[in-house]
Amino acid sequence: MVTRLKYSMNEKFVKLGKNVTIQEYVLLGAIPSNIDEIKPLIIGDNCLIRSHTVIYTNTIIGNHVQTGHNVLIREHDNIGNNVSIGSHSVLERNVTIEDNVRIHSNVFIPEYTNIEQNAWIGPNVVMTNAYHPKCNIVKQCLKGPTIKKFAIIGANTTILPYVTIGKRAFIGAGSLVTKDIPNGMVAYGSPAKIVKKIEELSCTTNLKNTKAYEEVNFFLKTKTNEKISE
């Protein structure tokens, strides 16, 4: 079943799964310019596409994905299951988002960026993919960041091209990340510097006896006990 409101869909190039809800003023199947072969936009089951979202062809979206309002998803993107993309966020082409990723509002994700499963991207995060944007061969060396699984990127962080944020790494809000951050490390600042290990984080509020704190503490203990080389 597709819940149909007032939206625009290029039915020739869109394949919808079951129980997809599409809100008003959505555009599905926008055709990019200068593309050699048009392939359908595929949207999986139980997805929610909120109003004013635009999604191009040649993109695959998994099950249980939801967008906020005014989201732009370009061509050749591959989005996994259980992904949330906040309002006013932009995913440029050739982006890979794995399962269970949370992307908050006003996030910019450039071409050739990879975000692995269970990563968390805070609001107003900006990722970049070009060291020299005005170079006449810049398109030959575009590469966005790689965000490894379970990494957390705090609000208003900027991440430069080619940078890798390691598994379970934590980037503090407002940081400028210019170099790779290893697995399981906490970093912040401009430029971001490593300050401690993730398991050394302490709760600064009065939540130590609550269920929420126990769940977070359990997450840190179980995930940091994995082999870092995995």
Walk me through what this model shows.
- The structure is a single chain.
- This protein has 230 residues and is mainly beta.
- The chain has a single domain, classed as UDP N-Acetylglucosamine Acyltransferase, domain 1 (3 Solenoid).
- The chain contains 1 helix and 28 strands.
- It has one helix at residues 211-224; strands spanning 2-4, 8-9, 14-16, 20-22, 27-30, 41-43, 48-49, 54-56, 60-61, 66-67, 72-73, 78-79, 84-85, 90-91, 96-97, 102-103, 108-109, 114-115, 120-121, 126-127, 146-147, 152-153, 158-159, 164-165, 170-171, 176-177, 185-189, 192-197.
- The chain has an 11-stranded mixed sheet, with no helix packed on it.
- Strand 27 (185-189) and strand 28 form a beta hairpin.
- The longest helix has 14 residues, at 211-224.
- It is globular and about 50 Å long.
Distance between the termini: 41 Å
CATH superfamily: Hexapeptide repeat proteins
Q: Write the CATH fold name.
A: UDP N-Acetylglucosamine Acyltransferase, domain 1
CATH class value: Mainly Beta
| Average pLDDT, all residues | 90
The tally of beta strands, per DSSP, is 28
Indicate the structural class.
Answer: mainly beta
Q: How much strand?
A: 25-35%
Instruction: State the CATH architecture.
Output: 3 Solenoid
Q: Unreliable segments (pLDDT under 50, ≥5 consecutive)?
A: none
User: Helix coverage percent of residues?
Assistant: under 10%
How are the strands ordered across the major sheet? 1-4-7-10-13-16-19-22-25-27-28
Task: Give the biggest sheet.
Answer: 11 strands, mixed
Shape, per Cα inertia axes: globular
Put simply, the count of helices is: 1
Number of domains: 1
Tell me the series of helices and strands, N- to C-terminal. EEEEEEEEEEEEEEEEEEEEEEEEEEEEH
